[in-house]
Amino acid sequence: MAPITQAHINLTAMQANLATVKQLAPHSQIMAVIKANAYGHGLIPIAQTLTTADGFAVVELEEALALRASGITQRILLLGGTVLDENAVVQCANQSIDVLTHSLSMLAIICQTKVNKPLAIWLKLDTGMHRLGLHYDEWDQALKQAKQCPHIGTITLMTHLSHADDLTRSTTQHAITQFMQANDKQALPMSMANSAAIIHYRNSHADWIRPGLMLYGVNPCSPGSRTLNRGLSLQPAMTLTAPILAIRTIQAGEGVGYNHRWISRKKTKIATVGIGYSHGYPHTASNGTPVLIHGQRAPLVGAVSMDMITIDISQCSAVQVGDTVTLWGEKLPVEEIAQHAQTISYALLTAIADKVPRIYEPVA
Ligand SMILES: *Cc1c(COP(=O)(O)O)cnc(C)c1O
Asked: What is the number of the ligand 1 atom nearest to the C-alpha of 59?
């Protein structure tokens, strides 16, 4: 690995994770969620790797159009993170992009818009997240309008679960039951499950599953629930690396970095590494956050700077300037770094800056 700050993306791991998803939900179609630049892994390369997915979900219209332009022929779903005007609806219809429809006003816009071919929609019910989605009281009316609208083609019924990663509550089971009951007379395809639900709630699988994080080899469950899915063999796809820029020895009582957030208790060997929050390494990473050097763990000491971090390498042997440090990856789970930085894996992966080159290891 060359000594520059970069994110290595293992495409074989991505395919293996997709196969694991298929094993967990063999009767469901897979809408692979690749929003936010495929969780930081690179939109087009990831879509072109997941060839056996049945569809791809993104948030930005630009992402959806870029996927079509790159030759993706599967279903593409625009998740409801943006406001769609009539012009956008026309573009979606022309490019066969499915549109998540989460309110009566949005349904009205779609029905008013003159399109050349029918638009496929995913009608969203709010089963408790209270973020997007139609209220139960509006659901029957929305379904009726959608079915009557000549501009609307395929209708898929969906919801998004608020607690699928938390196994200590009955909230998810309740939401699944409510969703099924609201739709028990409909002969339309249904979709509920994100990664955590795919792993823990078989009765949420239905016609379409929507895996995101697990495709990238990261466990979506809260640390407390993880022991339950030790058997799950997900392979982390991203390995983030950076080079050692300098090595020095400091004496007992000397501090490191801004405001000397860490002060040595004994003579300590410090390595300065070329990655910081401007690359997406979390500023909140605390003293003791692990990194890997030649397979050995070493702790972060001192505050994370814009372009650098400092590591205590006193316990590591044969470390030199120019050597490669791994910030997370196959042998150092990003979940663990997230805990040390009081954040979540999703936030770490999607924060990797554009300036960090993604290096793709082609499928073996
Ligand atoms: C992001 C997203 C997903 C994927 O969630 P993961 O937890 O990453 O599996 C699924 N459905 C919707 C509506 C989403 O916004």
From this structure: 15
Compute the residue count for the chain: 364
Beta carbons of 274 and 307 less than 8 angstroms apart = yes
**Among the listed ranges 1-5, 40-44, 87-91, which one has the minimum average pLDDT value?**
1-5
Please report the sign of the dihedral spanned by the C-alpha atoms of residue 161, residue 167, residue 168, residue 169.
Answer: positive
Clarify whether 258 is annotated catalytic. Answer: yes
pLDDT of 111 > 80? The answer is: yes
Determine whether the shortest distance from the Cβ of 300 to ligand 1 is under 6 A: no
Catalytic residue among 144, 258, 267, 331: 258
Q: Is the CB of 195 under 6 A from ligand 1?
A: yes
The closest-lying atom of ligand 1 relative to the alpha carbon of residue 194 is 9
Considering only 5-19, 155-169, 318-332, which range has the smallest mean pLDDT? 155-169
- With a pLDDT cut of 90, the percent of the chain lying above it is 88
> pTM for this one?
0.96
- Is the beta carbon of 163 within 6 A of some atom in ligand 1? no
Encode pLDDT of 147-162 as tens digits: 999 999 999 999 999 9
Neighbours of 2 (CB within 10 A): 9
Establish whether 22 is a catalytic residue. no
pLDDT at 185 over 80: yes
Amino acid (1-letter code) at residue 26: P
Specify the 3-state DSSP secondary structure of 336.
Answer: helix
CB 97 within 8 A of CB 117: no
Query: 133: Cβ below 6 Å to ligand 1?
Result: no
